[in-house]
């Protein structure tokens, strides 16, 4: 794993390349061969997708005044919309079956595809002051101090309430939401917004064991709140890392922002359902996509849909991402470095640019 200083240097040297400026990247044939070699069989019955119950969090969001919701979105983007996304778990499992861990792409038929930072950013609309100011993972030390500053919890209480589940440290959301309820009851809307955003970061964007907001999620949110970093690279990193781990092991638990990955899947894999949607600046794509009705499907039906595409009819880019500049290389490399909360990875958007 690269050191934090090396990763930071790559990020600081990031530059936008034109599509014609990079040297050749692996061909579809190369990717397909790599995908077929030395991977264990994938047992989808041994793949878990655990998603936190969000009904209570969403009800608290609905109780906020409209002007408070508007200020929340100005500060944190459209992350609250993720609470309304109904994920079809079979879709995630079916896509995992075509994940190529060597090249970090979904590879099927003559198609290589992968979510990009720019697509995730277009969906969430998270504001940030500097594009390359990102999360750099450091060893967690006394994260309870961060929690104390964020939510106004007494130091000793925050420290004593920290729990350990397996190798994960954090706090039960049932404990933290009491602070949110207090702020809502007292109409302390700024503090309520912070507590709500922390819940979304801990239960949706960077999920850990069910019902727990991990120290890692608190650390990311702290850097967002205090240093205005862009969390999108870390969100995407966790997605790629968990897909790679599960595919290499042939089993495991998909631990990432499942709601965001699912929205990306249906935006590319459900052209008929999304065909009638028109994107306007005052109607963000994520809002419209949560209204879509996708007929429930099992893994086999999703698998058949995936295999029905070829490079000519696959939806490569949505209207809401047209004209975007895409970062396809950093530090002179033909890949983009990504630092998550559980590890470091990179991906190669040049493979999937059409």
TrEMBL record:
Polar residues composition bias: residue spans: 1-10
Domain of life according to the entry: Eukaryota
Biological source species: Hevea brasiliensis (Para rubber tree)
Signal peptide (UniProt feature, chain positions): none
All residue ranges annotated as the DUF7745 domain in the record: 64-353
Region annotated Disordered, chain positions: 1-34
Stored PANTHER family: PROTEIN, PUTATIVE-RELATED
Membrane-spanning parts: none
One protein family per Pfam: DUF7745
Name by which UniProt lists this protein: DUF7745 domain-containing protein
């Amino acid at each position: 794993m690269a050191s934090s200083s090396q990763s930071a240097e790559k990020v600081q040297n990031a530059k936008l390349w034109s599509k014609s400026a990079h040297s050749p990247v692996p061909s579809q044939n190369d990717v397909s061969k790599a995908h077929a070699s030395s991977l264990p069989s994938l047992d989808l019955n041994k793949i878990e997708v655990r998603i936190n119950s969000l009904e209570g969090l969403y009800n608290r969001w609905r109780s906020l005044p409209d002007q408070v919701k508007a200020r929340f979105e100005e500060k944190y983007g459209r992350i609250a919309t993720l609470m309304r996304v109904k994920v079809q778990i079979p879709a995630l499992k079916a896509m995992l079956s075509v994940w190529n861990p060597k090249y970090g792409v979904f590879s099927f038929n003559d198609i290589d595809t992968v979510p990009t930072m720019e697509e995730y950013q277009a969906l969430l609309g998270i504001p940030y002051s500097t594009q390359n100011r990102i999360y750099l993972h450091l060893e967690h030390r006394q994260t309870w101090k961060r929690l104390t500053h964020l939510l106004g919890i007494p130091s000793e209480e925050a420290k004593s309430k920290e729990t350990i589940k397996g190798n994960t440290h954090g706090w039960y959301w049932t404990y933290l939401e009491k602070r949110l309820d207090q702020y809502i009851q007292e109409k302390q809307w700024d503090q309520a917004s912070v507590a709500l955003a922390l819940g979304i970061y801990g239960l949706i964007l960077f999920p850990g064991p069910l019902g727990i907001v991990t120290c890692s999620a608190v650390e990311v949110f702290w850097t967002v709140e205090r240093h205005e970093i862009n969390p999108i690279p870390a969100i995407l990193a966790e997605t790629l890392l968990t897909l790679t781990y599960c595919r290499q092991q042939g089993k495991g638990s998909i631990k990432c922002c499942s709601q965001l990955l699912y929205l990306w899947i249906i935006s590319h894999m459900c052209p008929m359902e999304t065909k009638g949607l028109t994107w306007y600046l005052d109607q963000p794509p994520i809002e419209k996509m949560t209204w879509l009705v996708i007929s429930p499907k099992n893994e086999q039906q999703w698998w058949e849909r995936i295999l029905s595409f070829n490079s000519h009819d696959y939806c490569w880019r949505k209207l809401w991402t047209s004209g975007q500049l895409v970062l396809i290389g950093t530090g002179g490399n033909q890949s983009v470095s990504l630092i998550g909360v559980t590890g470091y990875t990179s991906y190669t958007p040049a493979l999937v640019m059409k």
